[in-house]
Amino acid sequence: MGNVGLLYVGAVLFVNGLMLLGAVPQRSAAVLNLFVGALQCVLPTVLLIQAAGDTTAILAASGLYLFGFTYLYVGITTLAGLDTQGLGWFSLFVAAAAVIYSALSFTLSADPVFGVIWLAWALLWSLFFLVLGLRRTEFTRFTGWAVVLLSQPTCTIPAFLGLTGNYTPTAPAAWGTAAAFLTLIALAAAIARHEPATSHVGASSRAIHA
Q1: Which pick of 5, 98, 106, 183 has the fewest CB atoms within 10 Å?
Q2: For position 63, which CATH number holds?
Q3: What's the pTM value of the predicted model, to 2 decimals?
Q4: How many CB atoms within 10 Å of residue 15?
Q5: To 5 degrees, how large is the angle CA 92–CA 80–CA 14?
Q6: Residue 144 pLDDT exceeds 90
């Protein structure tokens, strides 16, 4: 069930990355954020009800709320025209929690691939904190490209692998995943560095970027 939610997280992250880059209107992206945010709150609630005290299942479900609350926060803040700084500081909390979930994936869950994925999410939410919480708008384009490029390999691809029974959480797969993510982050930095700034990007830096 968690893979179903992860699939749509890939979609909303992709759209939000494009919103950061000024390619998608903010209010249009807000609607998808509300849909996915609601989904990512309903699914873990169902999982918690079904867990029957299983701490492993409860731990797995608990992390999903981080995404659900993020996207609901994005959608409501955008549509209501609220200041985004609160969302930025919440993103710092999410980034810190993601580091903990990463450590638990490497140890308790014995899933090094998702250990790497959680670290990638920690990076993305740290960037949201910089752009929104600290108003470091010079990172807006890099954040947008990082979100666009990492949205599919951190969400959609592992979701489809899990849904089809082809997900393999092995150490070699984790190393390959880490190498791919580092390459994509470097590519995002290169594109952002050489891409000319536009008025759309400047406008997006004042909006919701998570």
Answers
A1: 183
A2: 1.25.40.600
A3: 0.90
A4: 22
A5: 55
A6: yes
